[in-house]
Specification:
Blueprint: E1 2-11, E2 18-28, E3 33-37, H1 44-51, E4 59-64, E5 67-68, E6 76-79, H2 83-86, H3 93-103, H4 108-121, H5 137-150, E7 155-159, H6 167-184, E8 187-191, H7 195-201, E9 204-208, E10 213-220, H8 236-253
Parallel strand pairs: 2-10, 3-8, 3-9, 6-7, 7-8
Antiparallel strand pairs: 1-2, 1-4, 4-5, 9-10
Helix pairs in contact: 3-4, 3-5, 4-5, 7-8
The protein binds adenosine-5'-triphosphate.
Protein name: Taurine import ATP-binding protein TauB
GO molecular function, one term: ATP binding
Pfam families: ABC_tran
Length: 261
């Protein structure tokens, strides 16, 4: 479904080039929910921008359902951390959700159906007429998620979407993502700094090395499909997976001297 092959990204710079990503290869199956973790600065955002067609890799390819990604694909949506900056404050919630649908040239009635369904799915149908600044941070992020879902993406990319919300809201949003992922049969690639979040959410956790970056490990999450914030996180297997990934990232964060990439 989503194939990243031999991706390298070098940024030009005044003080020399920065090789942000050295050689990334991985694939996501249709309908898979995978999380991506790695040490700070390892190139997670760079990777997502290349997958979303917002930036070209220096070498390597991204393919979506067999088609090369050379610009933003029509069936992909991205949710960023900074919900405050991604919503237009002068547009009501519904108009924010429907805005990308105008690019798809959908008729007004279809836009309304899709925004109704998406706002209902994130529990904000009563706030369709509100402005984003009248909502809490967690609610604004749900608007951003509703906007992504209304677009009917086959693939949803999420770049640390819950980093700026409080712990309880974050837990609620994590459960919301798993619910929406199942309901809308999307493929989801979820980037996070939070190892517990990656294990709780994912069917798989891809661990990136420090820069210049490769995929250091690909960990299947063999927890039950029905997850619960208290009982799942309390399982022995959850602790084992968390420890394994934590150790990988700690090793990845060590100075690269003596390491072979
Ligand atoms: N536009 C740019 N020009 C030059 N170097 C860049 C540019 N953008 C990112 N980099 C460098 O590329 C590397 C990867 O950056 P990126 O933001 O993708 O990492 P990240 O894993 O998302 O970071 P974080 O964990 O802090 O969110 C870093 O060394 C960064 O300094």
């Amino acid at each position: 479904m989503l194939d990243v092959t031999g991706m390298q990204k070098i940024y030009p710079g005044q003080h020399g080039e920065v090789e942000a990503i050295r050689d990334l290869t991985f694939s996501l199956d249709d309908g898979e929910l995978a999380c991506l973790v790695g040490p700070s600065g390892c190139g997670k955002t760079t990777l997502l921008k290349c997958i979303a067609g917002l930036m070209r890799p220096t070498s390597g390819t991204v393919e979506l359902a067999g088609n090369a990604v050379t610009g933003p694909p029509p069936d992909m949506a991205v949710v960023f951390q900074e919900y405050g900056r991604s919503l237009f404050p002068w547009l009501r919630v519904r108009d924010n959700v429907e805005l990308p649908l105008k690019e798809k040239r959908l008729a007004k009635q279809r836009r309304r159906e899709l925004s109704d369904e998406a706002l209902e799915a994130v529990g904000l149908h009563k706030f369709a007429g509100a402005y984003p600044w009248q909502l809490s941070g967690g609610m604004q992020q749900r608007v951003a998620i509703a906007r992504a879902i209304a677009y009917e993406p086959r693939v949803m990319l999420m770049d640390e979407p819950f980093a700026a919300v409080d712990a309880q809201t974050r837990a609620d949003l994590e459960d919301l993502i798993r619910t929406l992922w199942k309901r809308f049969n999307m493929t989801v690639l979820f980037v996070t700094h939070d190892i517990d979040e990656a294990v709780y959410l994912g069917q798989r956790v891809l661990v990136m090395s420090s820069s210049p970056t490769i995929i250091q490990d690909d960990v299947p999450v063999d927890l039950a499909d029905e997850r619960d914030q208290i009982s799942t996180r309390g399982e022995h297997r959850f602790a084992e997976l968390r420890s394994r990934i934590y150790a990988e990232i700690r090793n990845a964060s060590q100075p690269a001297a003596g390491k072979t990439a």
